[in-house]
Amino acid sequence: MYKVFFITFGCKVNQYETQCMKELFAERGFTAADSPSQAEVIVINSCTVTSSGDSRALTSLRKMRELRPDAVIALTGCYPQANAAEAAKVTGADIVCGTKDRSRLPELVLDFCEKHCRIVELSPYAPGEPFEPLSCSRYDDNTRAFVKIQDGCDRFCSYCLIPYARGRCRSKSIDLLREEAFRLAQSGKKEIVITGINLAFYRDPSGADMADAAKVCAVTPGIERVRLGSLEPEMMTPDTLRRLAELPQFCPQFHLSLQSGCDRTLKAMNRRYSAEDYLSLVENIRSHFPDCSFTTDVMVGFPGETDDDHRQSMELVEKVGFAKVHVFRYSPRPGTPAAGRTDQIPEMIKSARWKEMSETAGRCREKYLSSLVGKTLPVLFERENSTEFHQGHAPDYTPIKIFRKNPEKSLRNRIISVIIEEYTHDGCVGRPVNDLEYDII
User: Fold this and answer.
1) What is the CATH code for 376-439?
2) DSSP-derived pairing of the beta strands 72-77 and 95-97
3) Predicted pLDDT of residue 138
4) For the chain, which terminal residue's Cβ has fewer other Cβ atoms within 10 angstroms, N or C?
């Protein structure tokens, strides 16, 4: 049977869906290729959040076609779904499909191999579209596994293509989640990261919400950590926080999407909260989780953004004290309201604001990491860095490393208490509380 290689761009949802597709291909007899040069089938799972995401996927497609002119190449994901007419004309891809009916992709590949006729399957989402019940039972070599429980978005932020790429909100049933969590625990995973396009909007047909989903994963035997993916601020209610705080396995790291700290810009973006709402939520979360961390995304250079708007955004970032901020420049997405505005910001100004916001975010990260020195944190170790370090993450998702005593021994998939002794630009360095644990494979 054919060997298949996957290339994935974008978010944790895409990573999850790639893992599901790997298992679907394996069920049909395909085997995994270690590199594209060995593959007879190459699947490119694309992202369209930014124009650079589109470019990366198309550049990868061209490179793969040059490297493997005889391979079957499938372009899938958000880019073709949101840009159907454009994607249908893309040369180099033998199969073009979007984010719908991903379970049919192995069948499409086999069909192409038999008939050698280009396949384009792109259709828009319809109201009431069901949740496609993709699932996975393993997660390659990682100690954590992503699990998608929600898809789609109803918010239609003025800059965003995601509702067109993913359709409206829909959710996985709580029973399917329970089964998937059990299989992942059986495969040896200790941490589950619950993901979705608009995760806080999760509602299964029985009425179960995101806190219920977290509890289902937390009580699964073998699962010791449960983490949430990106969250929309307006859906994090006091009751949700109270219920999450009751779960000992819950990791208090909150990726709260911000986009801007300026009310005027937030309104223009069609975001459903104010800067004050955001700060109040942060305070409420800290009252339930004193040792929590906050990460976020911030956009600079949105159409009409003034120097004062930009300053307000930086001030809010400093007030929150984020552990990490993903700063990105606004890029127009054709078909969105923001792209049609006449007050677009020049690229030179965007770049200057990106630099200023990144420096602000860097100061916040340094302050946060320095606050961890002297604390004892439970670390789930995931890998070794050559022969020098064991590496893992604390519950707040801070990267932690400790020195390796024996290059032949591994701490992978073990949780060990570590005293933090220093911080670096990318995380913290510590030592085990109990040195005897160093010596256990």
Assistant:
1) 2.40.50
2) parallel
3) 77
4) C
